[in-house]
Amino acid sequence: MNGDNMNTGSFGNSPGAGAPGQPPQPPQQPQQNQQNQQFAPPPPKEVDVRTMGSDTKSMERGDISPMPDKMAPPQFGAEPSFAPETQIGGDFGGKETVADPAKSQKVWIWTAIIAAVVVLGVGGYFALPFITGTPDPIVEEVPGTPIVPVIQHQSYLVPAPLSQSTIQLSAITQLAARNSLELVAGNSQSAGTLQEVSVQNSTGGQIPFAQYMSVFAPELTVTNMEQWFDEDFTTFIHYDANGAWPGYVARLKSGVNIDEVRASVMALEGTMIANFYLGNPGTFGAFKDGQINTMPTRYSVGSIPGASFNFAILGNYFVITTSYPGLQAVTPLLGFSQ
Questions:
Q1: Residue 272 in domain
Q2: Which domain holds residue 230?
């Protein structure tokens, strides 16, 4: 038969045929890209959380003690699974980078936190004084030289005497006032003359009556006189054959109680009335009641001729004279006829 002529070598060329003496090899499987495999992280452990809801459920179930709920904690910032870089076809070997959403979320969270801290800090700086009621700092002003109003003298005598003079006192003292009036009286005037004298301070303003009179009669007190009398006052010197006799006129403030003032000025009787005189008036007797144009006065006569201390409230004026002729001369000039 032709069986001996059969070609058995065709079996050796068939695919999958092994070499002589070797077992056949299994067909190769296509390689998988293990880089594409992703591994999920293990699940988080459950934790016990006690809440008001869990306590309520425990009471409803009749548990002996509150039983917490079991829950998985939230995952923040979990590490992302590995993703391979992918080849961009036809792009000279360039690589495409896949964005990490978890990292982006962290960046935005920290940016928001920093921005909130800055806003709260700036807002709190400006809002804190309004919330706490903290007042604004007080800036103390350094006072300058006080401005003292100048008192302009206006005579209470009408008509004003023809003879006028002015004295200026750098210090308001009894001695300074008396020496200045003596200088004025040194310019001899004829008997019967009434000379008005303006008493000013060193800047040319009228000295207030309360300050001036307090150095002669401190018993009246500055406070009382400031309440009773205007600041301006009239000083005069009356001349007669016996010498020069000073006198003063102050005006009562509107609304004062005249009877109260009349009773208070009686304190003059306890003062050193000799200080009102330019020379030695001698000794004085007791004070007595008198009158001028039916208006009551108080007076005391000195041992030197012409010396007689008088004081009275005539209408709205308080008058002091060191002689009775001086009181008689000034009364008509205050609007009271003889």
A1: yes
A2: 163-334
Terminal Cα-to-Cα distance of the chain (whole angstroms): 197
What is the H or E stretch that residue 194 is in? strand 194-201
Total domains in the chain come to 1
188-224 burial, b at 16+ Cβ within 10 Å, e below that, comes to ebeeebbbbbbbbbeeebbbbbbebbbbbbebbeeeb
Write down the mean pLDDT value for the chain: 80
Residue type, 99: A
Angle at 303 between CA 301 and CA 305, to 5 degrees: 85
Distance CA 308, CA 292 (A): 14
Task: Look at residue 137 and tell me if it is in a domain.
Answer: no
**In 3-state terms, what secondary structure has residue 149?**
coil
pTM of the model: 0.58
238 touches 321 (CB < 8 A)? yes
Distance CA 251, CA 314 (A): 10
Q: Does residue 269 fall inside a structural domain?
A: yes
Position 240 in a domain: yes
Residue type, 101: P
The identity of residue 298, as a single letter, is R
Q: What pLDDT digit, counting tens, does each position of 236-270 carry?
A: 999 999 999 999 999 999 999 999 999 999 999 99
